[in-house]
Amino acid sequence: MVGRAEFDRRLILGLGAGTALVTATGARAAAVLGDDGNYAQDWYLDSFLDLAEDAEAAQAAGKRFAVQWGMRGCPACKRLHTTYFAKPDIETFVRERFELMHLDTFGSREVTDIDGERLGEKAMAAKRAVRTTPTFQFFAPRDGKVAEVARMPGLLGEKDFLEMFRFVAEGAYADGSFEDWLRKRQAG
């Protein structure tokens, strides 16, 4: 019989080896607490931090591209990663349709923005007016270039959180606001 500490050790070793994980909730992934104190998913995009390239690669793979902003010690970020993404319906929908990159609102890594400007994460968060965490910025081609097409500032309730991802996945942002789209779905 394996004790809890041994199970945790095997789990960590398995994740380090790139082993697929099915959690007790049925989700295929696990929240990872990085050395920087930020939570992310083990399936989040690992990139050279060039948002335009990442958006193009996501599109080529038939997915949408989004940036999730977080920060060390954010309780809503922890809930996002340990509760929301632990639910198979949420994790599966988002994982199958989106490439997500995690950026830190107080981070110092250099990122190339969609427009080609190179900034540290903290400066980019200020430029992009990210004022709360977690914030999701959704990007897609618009008028011949990649642009932000929707934003989730803060953590919505679980149902609306998933609906926001549906809204973007369906391209409904082209026809109006998330709030209007959600009202129509709830009325219909």
UniProtKB/TrEMBL annotation:
Residues 59-164 form the Thioredoxin-like fold domain. SUPFAM superfamilies: Thioredoxin-like (SSF52833). InterPro entries: SoxW, Thioredoxin-like_fold, Thioredoxin-like_sf. This is Thioredoxin. It comes from Methylopila jiangsuensis. The gene is soxW.
